[in-house]
Design brief:
DNA_brk_join_enz; mainly alpha; DNA polymerase, domain 1
């Protein structure tokens, strides 16, 4: 027996659901108009019901694209159409409007899950997860919690493998790495619920595991000449330039992480021994960096002639009042992009060009100079040398030397 509803009825129900969720009036009007165009397309094709195939055909015919927005670019005017197709498909399958991209400031936990979510947060803190890692983990989890609330699940004991399966379907298609991270977060949370007595069965076993092994991406690196051009582009006569130059050198010459640079305090600088000693934010391991000649003079120049007079204990502060440390979520990405443009360096499409890429460049140079993975791992502050081994892929000359000569193989056969 046919259980699907005609596409016009389905579209009307989605509009009512959006109104109940307090979507803006203009947003609802725009989606309603988009639904009308999709319904007209379905009538022209003599199709009564919505299907993923119909949605894909509509996007290809009207906009020349598909909903695979994570794999291929799409025209700007297709954004509303893609969103409308996803709304119809989600509602037909789940009977709820799934909010895939939600940035919530001060997330409000649903009352029925508040106790266990708070307990899980404390568990993460006890395991000493980094603030950034815990924030990402909880954000992924909140999507699942919102889905349960939309499905009117009032108790974690009511979660079933079928509900988990429906949720997993709702997050696809996405980038492979994103799916793996979401599933891992979900699996760990459900395991936590079972071990702490919130559920009678271990629902983590119902979460599928990716069967395809994913090779880590080759790190983005810069040629030494490009790094020099970037540094030469800094205006070291201005306060901003003095500060940015010191930051760039700390990454490019010492391999410090952005989080550690933001957390760097004046007390961490030991001028007598010419060292910087910190506890790394990511690994919680104490590490000591040498204050190299150029790094030391850049820091002195910034501290004496550019750093605002303030009571902040941090080395690097904002140059505009209030003179405080960089924000928790600041990744200092604009520093790199600003001087890349000034230096006239062309960034290939898809290449990462944040400050972290300077760490990659340092590792690549050290590898080419013959440094062992153990030494590079110590310099970069890696706890596991496996994290460093990925840089072997950047040493093209070293890889070429490992290649076999077919003629030599045949001669010795």
């Amino acid at each position: 027996m046919e259980t699907r509803k005609p596409i016009e009825v389905l579209a009307a129900e989605v509009i009512e659901a959006l109104k109940q969720l307090n979507y803006a009036y203009n947003t609802v009007c725009g989606i309603r108009a988009s639904f009308n165009r999709i319904c007209a397309f379905a009538r022209d094709r003599n199709e009564r019901y919505f299907s993923e195939e119909l949605g894909q055909a509509y996007l290809r015919n009207k906009y020349g694209c598909t909903t695979d927005y994570y794999l291929e670019p799409f025209p700007r005017n297709a954004k509303q159409a893609i969103r409308s197709v996803r709304l119809l498909g989600d509602y037909q399958l789940h009977r709820v409007v799934i909010r895939r991209i939600v940035k919530k400031k001060g997330y409000v936990k649903p009352p029925q899950f508040e106790e266990m979510l708070t307990a899980y947060e404390k568990e993460c803190e006890a395991n000493e997860y980094s603030l950034r890692g815990m924030r990402s983990r909880l954000q992924r989890l909140f999507f699942f919690v919102d889905y349960l609330a939309l499905r009117n699940v009032m108790n974690v004991g009511d979660i079933t493998p079928d509900i988990i399966s429906d949720y997993v379907i709702s997050i696809c298609p996405r980038h492979e790495k994103s799916i793996a991270a979401i599933l891992t977060t979900l699996r760990v949370f459900l395991r936590f619920l079972y071990l702490h007595g919130y559920t009678e069965t271990d629902l983590s076993l119902a979460v599928p595991k990716p069967t395809r092994y994913r090779y880590p991406a080759i790190p983005s690196t810069w040629e030494p000449s490009e790094v020099k051009r970037m540094l030469d582009a800094v205006d070291r006569g201005s306060p901003r330039g003095k500060r940015d130059y010191a930051i760039l050198l700390l990454v490019a010459k010492l391999g410090m992480r952005v989080g550690d640079i933001k957390a760097l305090k004046l007390s961490h600088l030991n001028w007598e021994t010419k060292t910087i000693t910190i506890v790394q934010e990511k690994t919680k391991v104490e590490v000591t960096y040498p204050i190299l000649h150029d790094v030391g003079w850049a820091l002195i120049d910034y501290l004496q002639h550019a750093r605002p007079v303030c009571e902040s204990p941090y080395v690097f502060v904002r140059l505009n009042a209030p003179f405080e440390a960089f924000g928790e979520n600041a990744n200092l990405h604009t520093i790199m992009t600003h001087y890349i443009r000034l230096a006239g360096i062309t960034v290939p499409r898809g290449k990462r060009h944040g400050l972290h890429s300077l760490r990659h460049s340092l590792a690549s140079v050290l590898l080419e100079q013959g440094a062992s993975l153990a030494v590079i791992s110590e310099i970069l502050g890696h706890v596991d040398s496996k994290s460093t081994s990925v840089y072997l892929h950047t040493d093209l000359n070293g890889l070429k030397s490992c290649a076999l000569d077919p003629e030599e193989v045949f001669r010795n056969a």
